[in-house]
Amino acid sequence: GKLWIPGAMAGRVARIAAQLRTFGGSRTFCSMAAATDDVLFDEKANGNMLITLNRPKALNALDASMVAKLTPKYKSWLADSAKRTLVMVGAGSKAFCAGGDIKAIYDAKKKGLSAKKCCTFFENEYELNQIIGTLPPNLTQVSILNGITMGGGVGLSVHGKKLDI
Predict the structure, then answer these.
(1) What is the DSSP letter of 80?
(2) H/E element, 75
(3) How far is CA 53 from the centre of its chain?
(4) The domain 7-164 belongs to what CATH superfamily?
(5) In the record, which residues are listed under signal peptide (predicted)?
(6) At 10, is the secondary structure helix, strand, or coil?
(7) 41-90 pLDDT, tens per residue?
């Protein structure tokens, strides 16, 4: 189906979409992931970063691998005083992020992973949420909530000093 956007917002959404197409210029400075990776980092020449949650078949649900890739990236940006904008989107047309991948945790538990190890995922995810929620003024995160956004997706997107669209 089509997304209905009130007239007053339609222009703003169109402008934002146009800016994302050329976010930081059309030249990519550093592409750090293959299209099959679960998180894509596309650093632009001006230092801005496009972050794509890339598990559309799983509604971009967060798993341990994604959290393990996102956390050190955010920590490196915290250590850098450069002013940059981070734009986070979900791949596909159905979801930004449906939350933590509970199915993966359940499957791991069935295969013998201890409850303590299963809880480690949530500890790591909450640490990432805390980092995002305390971003310094030189870092701005824009989250494009392009569909389903629940649980861990809310943690990635709405904490701290950011604009969520």
Answers:
(1) -
(2) helix 64-79
(3) 5
(4) 2-enoyl-CoA Hydratase; Chain A, domain 1 (3.90.226.10)
(5) none
(6) helix
(7) 999 888 899 999 999 999 999 999 999 999 999 999 999 888 889 999 99
